[in-house]
Write a structure and sequence with these properties.
This protein is α+β, with helices and mostly antiparallel strands. The chain contains 14 helices and 21 strands. The longest helix has about 70 residues, at about 5-75. The two termini are about 50 Å apart. Bound molecules: adenosine-5'-triphosphate (ATP) and magnesium ion.
């Protein structure tokens, strides 16, 4: 794999990992969070639905009570009851029966024995005081209504159709595979018993009117509840909501229909609901398997007037529509995740290409530069930071070229300078050596002549001039000898600051320099250098005297020291006339001077340059005409 592929591969893997991890986490949080919230919401709704269902159930019970009460309060009752005209009694009960759509309607004596049975007038005399509705009405002598269980035999006394409706075959469901197939015979009713009073004899109770509706296989209440709560909402052709009445744990009335379209009566409630609602007599709300599907359900016990839990009222909504929505949301989310991942990958390919292309160019360019081709450039400017990087690298390459050239020039200059110095030095040494002896002789003779008697004043003056000029010649020759001196340095570790301070003390005492301000900026704790103190002082003298001479009107001469990159730097800076650009190349040449004849020899800088070179150092100049000049000497630090 080349580097581009490697980078691309790493970027892609990292990118995909980030996208996948974030998306999956987001997906799970959203899915579970949202479905949890939705299910909770539905459960709350179903719990509220159960309250409404209980109210509907109670209303139906109360309606029977109200109907019977209305009749009992309106009528005066013949005493004894047996004396009631059969035709009149039949008319009355028939009207009540029709108004209340009752399944049972009987006239009872004050002990709970049937005096007249509207459905089956031939059947009478049986005692139904054990019926919890009747029992409580007898006991409390007032109207009592509620739900009750009516035995198979009692139903038989009413009519055969009641027995048929009550008889339910217990059917298996997916949740109840107990295999029991027994017939459920008893019926569950809602009804009321109201006392009948003798209006003439101080409202004495002479009997009871008992009416009830059989709930088994009756759809009235459950359908009303379903209609009230779920308004025929459906999902895939099936009702979403359902309401059911159980006698015990057997469905006797339900809005749920089976596959054949018949009501799903005769099936059992799940064991957990049975235990919680019938045995512990508590309300229960959770998801439950009902008949053929999962529902979110709520169940409440149905109590008889003696407060025994005899059945259950349950409502629920199918879970499937919500599960379907959750599944749909999951698929949509998955689609979005896949889509964003693909889009991100495409963007990644484009982005890496735009990023990697300049990087490739930069690597190629730097390879060329390393191989010696300094003309190589990146030569592209993409937008943004990458463009800035390319620009910076190209600028860096330009700077390298400039440095290279400057370095080459400096080297050429230094080599030339050294060669020049060497040849001039050799020549100067020869000439100086040859001239020095005759000059010494001349001076001695002039000295002797000066002390001769009888010389005219004019002759004395001429002799004085000769003596001075010869002295100057000898100085020049000594300078030349000094310049050419090969290895007469006495090297030892020196504190450069000390050398400078000694020299400055001497310089400050010169009265002619009173217009010049001297500044010293000497760094502390500088390392020592190996050098000859006298020679270095001579360099300082040459440079500082040059500086003073460049400031005839006065100015600032500042000498500073510092350490840089393990080298010691001495700077001598003046605010004088500066050096013309065309002279800069020549100032280190021996005998180059801009001073008038007889003033300067032009050897100061070349001698100083020679001394610094012998110390292993360098000397550089920077000057701005009219502003000033700075000479910088760099000396190696003494080792150890
Ligand atoms: N600080 C300076 N400011 C301006 N010009 C300078 C400075 N230092 C040197 N120069 C120029 O460089 C020339 C050469 O200087 P150098 O010290 O070698 O000789 P000189 O001063 O002319 O004579 P000598 O030092 O022998 O008396 C000077 O004549 C002067 O033109
Ligand atoms: Mg000089």
């Amino acid at each position: 794999m080349n580097w581009k592929r490697r980078v691309w591969f790493r970027l892609s893997v990292g990118f995909i990992a980030i996208i996948l991890v974030t998306n999956v986490v987001l997906f799970l949080i959203t899915l579970f969070g949202v479905s949890e919230i939705v299910i909770e919401e539905v459960q709350t709704r179903v719990r509220m639905d159960l309250n409404s269902a209980c109210k509907v159930f109670k209303k139906h019970v109360d309606d029977i009570g109200l109907l019977l009460q209305a009749t009992s309060a309106r009528r005066s009752v013949p005493v004894p009851l047996e004396s009631w005209d059969r035709e009149d009694l039949h008319r009355l009960l028939r009207s009540i029966w029709q108004a209340g759509e009752l399944d049972m309607l009987s006239l009872l004596d004050k002990d709970g024995r049937v005096v007249y049975r509207e459905h089956n007038p031939g059947q009478m005399g049986d005692d139904i005081s054990h019926n919890p509705i009747v029992a409580r009405a007898l006991r409390e002598k007032k109207c009592v209504q509620g739900a009750a269980v009516v035995t198979y035999e009692e139903l038989g006394r009413e009519c055969a159709d009641m027995v048929r409706r009550a008889s339910l075959e217990i059917k298996p469901t997916k949740a109840d595979q107990s295999g029991e197939r027994k017939i459920h015979h008893d019926g569950m009713v809602i009804g009321a018993a109201v006392p009948l009073v003798d209006l003439r004899r101080d409202r004495e109770i002479v009997g009871f009117l008992y009416g009830a509706k059989l709930l088994n296989q009756s759809c009235e209440i459950v359908d009303e509840i379903k209609e009230d709560l779920y308004q025929d909402e459906s999902y895939q052709g099936m009702d979403i909501g359902a309401a059911t009445i159980f006698h015990g744990d057997v469905r006797v009335s339900t809005s749920i229909t089976g596959e054949d379209g018949s009501r799903a009566v005769g099936t059992r409630v799940s064991t957990v609901v049975h235990e919680k609602v019938l045995e512990m007599e508590k309300t229960w709300a959770d998801r439950a398997f009902v008949v053929d599907d999962w529902y979110i359900t709520a169940y409440a016990p149905i109590r008889d007037p003696e407060d025994r839990a005899i059945g259950i009222l349950g409502v629920g909504v199918r879970e499937e529509p919500f599960v379907h929505n959750r599944r749909l949301a999951a698929w949509i989310f998955l689609g979005v995740v896949t889509f964003t991942t693909v889009i991100s990958l495409v963007l990644l390919v484009l982005a890496t290409r735009t990023v990697l292309r300049p990087i490739g160019r930069i690597i190629k360019m730097s390879d060329k530069v390393v191989a010696g081709d300094l003309s190589a450039r990146v030569n592209m400017r993409p937008r943004g930071e990458m463009g800035l990087l390319c620009l910076a690298i190209d600028q860096m390459a330009d700077a390298v070229v400039q440095r290279e050239e400057a370095l080459a020039q400096a080297t050429r200059r230094q080599v030339g300078q050294s060669e020049k110095l060497a040849s001039v030095g050799r020549m100067a040494a020869g000439i100086a050596h040859e001239i020095n002896n005759p000059l010494t002789g001349l001076l001695t003779l002039e000295h002797l002549l000066k002390s001769e008697e009888g010389l005219s004043d004019k002759g004395k003056d001429y002799l004085e001039i000769m003596y001075n000029e010869t002295s100057r010649m000898r100085e020049i020759v000594l300078g030349l000898l000094n310049f050419a001196r090969e290895s007469s340095l006495e090297m030892k570790p020196l504190d450069v600051n000390e050398v400078i301070q000694q020299w400055l003390k001497l310089l400050r005492s010169q009265k002619e320099l009173k217009d010049i301000t001297m500044e010293e900026k000497l760094a502390e704790g500088l390392p020592r250098v190996n050098g000859d103190a006298n020679q270095l002082q001579q360099v300082l003298a040459n440079l500082s005297l040059n500086a003073c001479e460049a400031m005839p009107e006065g100015g600032i001469l500042s000498i500073s020291t510092s350490e840089e990159d393990g080298k010691l730097l001495i700077s001598i800076e003046d605010t004088g006339v500066g050096i013309k650009e065309e002279h800069l190349e020549m100032i280190f040449d021996p005998f180059f001077t801009t001073k008038p004849v007889g003033k300067g020899t032009g050897l100061g800088l070349s001698v100083s340059y020679g001394i610094v070179r012998k110390h292993g150092g360098t000397m550089e100049v920077e000057s701005q005409e009219g502003e000033g000049t700075t000479f910088t000497i760099t000396l190696p630090v003494a080792s150890g």
